[in-house]
Write a structure and sequence with these properties.
Layout: E1 2-5, H1 10-20, E2 23-24, E3 26-31, E4 37-42, E5 47-50, H2 56-67, E6 73-76, H3 95-106, E7 109-113, H4 118-121, E8 127-130, H5 133-139, E9 146-149, H6 155-165, E10 168-176, E11 182-186, E12 195-203, H7 207-218, E13 223-231, H8 237-243, E14 249-252, E15 260-262, H9 265-272
Parallel strand pairs: 1-2, 1-5, 5-6, 6-7, 7-8, 9-10, 9-12, 12-13, 13-14, 14-15
Antiparallel strand pairs: 3-4, 10-11
The protein binds ribose-5-phosphate.
Length: about 270
């Protein structure tokens, strides 16, 4: 088996290669003068392509890389386009369905990490959806923190991370006070004077974390940090988060960026090895 790194995931691919002992394939990426992408992979019979999809270029590069190979395993650590997992309005494309078809036409197996939803996963036939929450929990094993999910829907995730870290956890619950007022508060725990970590799968625009942190600071939290699997950080979200008083942003390396301080390499390596 060889590892074929896409330009979106070079470090994660190297980490996976180091863990598994698999060689990194001889791959060339170039751009034609008009901007089109060129891909060549040499001497690769059995391989795993590693490439997150966080932009249209990432997607095209991944599709071209798969086209150069026979029956590869494709690892898409961050599966973009997964939020459009149904037609919310008549006539809309179901983006993740289209992507699932393309990937599965070429790949023998598709591996991802914390895909946006079960609906998104349901469009694949050969998907392994890995969960990075234990990996995130391990990062906090020596820390005295409270983990908070920004909503009830993500309770399952925060519970796994907190149980691994051996720390307390809770979720923010919305209570309707009257027709115009909704109050958000932790369901069970008092956060006053505590170091709180908001745990989410994705930080995209940062709106969810900003709202949650505002409330946690109002309730007396000493510090509020944010940890996520996928740091999409669209639209200058990191600046927005720091301006809102977020002490630290920590993410995994499904999207490689300055905040990727937790690696999912072991998780993926055990799946493909
Ligand atoms: C919601 O389903 C997800 O778990 C995240 O809370 C959400 O995607 C975060 O988005 P944003 O950063 O744009 O608020």
């Amino acid at each position: 088996m060889k590892i074929v790194p896409c330009p979106s995931s070079p470090l994660l691919a190297k980490r996976i290669a180091d863990i598994t002992g698999f060689e990194i394939a001889d791959v060339t990426y170039r751009r034609f003068p008009d901007g089109e992408i060129y891909v060549r992979v040499e001497g690769c019979d059995e391989c795993a392509v590693i490439g997150s999809v966080n932009s249209n270029d990432d997607l095209v590069t991944l599709i071209l890389t798969l086209d150069a190979l026979e029956n590869p395993t494709v690892v898409v650590p961050y599966m973009g386009y997964a939020r459009q997992d149904k037609a919310f309005n008549a006539g809309e494309a179901v983006s993740i369905r289209a992507i699932a078809r393309i990937l599965e036409e070429k790949a023998e197996k598709v591996v991802t990490v914390n895909i946006h939803s079960e609906d998104a996963a349901s469009h694949f036939k050969k998907l392994r959806n890995l969960d990075a929450m234990q990996t995130i929990g391990k990062h906090f094993m020596e820390s005295d923190v409270i983990m908070i999910s920004p909503d009830r829907g993500s309770v399952g995730r925060v519970k796994v991370a907190a149980e691994t870290a051996n720390c307390e956890w809770d979720y923010l619950e919305k209570t309707r006070i009257d027709a115009t007022t909704v109050e958000i508060s932790p369901k069970n725990l008092d956060v006053e004077g505590k170091d709180v970590v908001i745990v989410d799968d994705i930080i995209s625009t940062g709106g969810t974390v900003v709202e949650a942190s505002k409330r946690l600071y109002e309730l007396g939290a000493k510090t509020v940090s944010a940890v996520c699997v996928h740091a999409v950080l669209a639209d200058f979200a990191a600046i927005k988060l720091f301006k809102a008083g977020i002490r630290d942003i920590i993410s995994t390396d499904t999207i490689e960026c300055a905040f990727s301080r937790i690696s999912v390499a072991h998780l993926i390596a055990s799946e493909i090895a």
